[in-house]
Design brief:
373 residues; Four Helix Bundle (Hemerythrin (Met), subunit A); 17 helices; cytoplasm; protein tyrosine phosphatase activator activity; PTPA_C_lid
Length: 373
């Protein structure tokens, strides 16, 4: 097999439509549905088979977290946006990508440059210092590639969700809180939370058929705290509660709407459909998608660019202009223009609110919750 570094291809609505009918699209959806089915009724705390490949992948994620811990944020008190130290972290991950991949069993050396691109893009955008569902999608693509190349197998599917993917989310929480990563784009309350989608999808699969916990239970903090260690869905709700105050109805209306659904089966099936529509079906997200030899593009290619700036976060995609929207609203065009309006991270907003409070202040790693008027 001939490998090559992935590149951006989708620039137009027509190319997006071609992708939606492509083999790559089918493979991504199939993989999500397969992992989803594997964790129905499975808790994060359950025992599962962890193959050498799974253990090696988890070890790689552990190393990424160590790189972050060795790269503290710089003094950036004047800004409520992303911390510039993230660029240093990103570069360190890129420098170590080859050696990290070399620790994965059965991985052909010639495939590393292709996988390293998906791996690097999984942590956020270096230029904009932001993170969103598109970066999360890159991590999923990295897992697809690892399975195609034999690093992990079908028997690893449970572990890939409750060990590997959940470890990735935990590392991302470290990056989000350390570097104040901004939410990618300007979707705001149109998203499930500021950063992630798949933990809610897989998390709702874990809860399918549960006899006692219902979707409306996310409004009971005692239940959320009790079950956060067992289920991704509740762990994500607990995270949101830790950085935002007031009711979910105010700052997370989509999650509030979903909580009215009667069963987790319906929540889960709805999540899969929503992922297809709101992530794989939206040009602002998919303009950033990367095609290589494993997840290949079979349509017409855009012209090659000879001079590309490393920090050009806008290269490889077109911006939506007002003339293109034709009066369409948010529901029609998705989460705003591809790069969106800069939105301070919830951690930065919390820190700013803390400084506004009168009286003595506690100094430490704890972060105040964000009040919503």
């Amino acid at each position: 097999m001939s490998f090559h570094p992935p590149r951006k291809v989708i620039l137009t609505k027509e190319q997006l439509e071609h992708f939606q009918a492509s083999e790559a699209h089918k493979n991504i959806i199939s993989y999500i549905e397969t992992l989803n089915a594997a964790v129905v009724g499975v808790k994060l705390t359950d025992d599962c088979v962890e193959s050498p490949g799974v253990k090696a992948v988890v070890a790689v994620l552990d190393q990424v977290e160590e790189i972050a811990k060795a790269t503290p944020p710089v003094d950036n008190k004047a800004s409520r946006f992303g911390n510039p130290a993230f660029k240093t972290f990103y570069d360190k991950v890129a420098e170590n990508a080859s050696s990290l991949h070399a620790t994965l069993p059965e991985l052909p050396g010639e495939a590393i440059p292709e996988l390293a691109v998906y791996f690097g893009e999984s942590w956020g955008n270096r230029t904009r210092i932001d993170y969103g569902s598109g970066m999360e999608l890159n991590f999923l693509c990295w897992l697809i590639c690892l399975e195609r190349l034999g690093v992990v197998q079908e028997s690893d599917h449970v572990a890939l969700v409750i060990r590997v993917f959940w470890r990735y989310v935990q590392v991302m929480r470290v990056l989000q809180s350390t570097y104040w990563l901004e939410p990618a784009g300007s979707h705001g309350v149109w998203g499930l939370d500021d950063y992630h989608f798949l933990p809610f999808l897989f998390g709702s699969a874990q809860l399918r058929g549960h006899k006692y916990i219902k979707p409306k239970s996310i409004h009971d903090r005692d239940i959320v705290d009790e079950y956060a260690k067992h289920y991704m869905y509740f762990a994500c709700i607990k995270f949101i509660n830790s950085v935002k105050t007031a009711s979910l109805r105010w700052h997370s209306p989509m999650l509030d709407d979903i909580s009215a659904v009667k069963t987790w089966d319906k929540v889960n099936s709805g999540m899969v459909k929503m992922f297809q529509a709101e992530v794989l079906g939206k040009l602002p997200v998919m303009q950033h998608f990367l095609f290589g030899s494993i997840l290949a593009w079979d349509g017409p290619l855009p012209p090659e660019r000879e001079e590309v700036e490393q920090d050009d976060g806008h290269w490889g995609h077109a911006h939506a202009h007002r003339a293109d929207l034709s009066g369409a609203g948010q529901r029609e065009v998705g989460w705003g223009d591809c790069c969106g309006i800069p939105v301070p991270s919830v951690f930065a907003a919390a820190e700013a609110e803390k400084r506004r409070q009168p009286g003595p202040r506690l100094v430490g790693a704890g972060i105040r919750a964000v009040p919503f008027d």
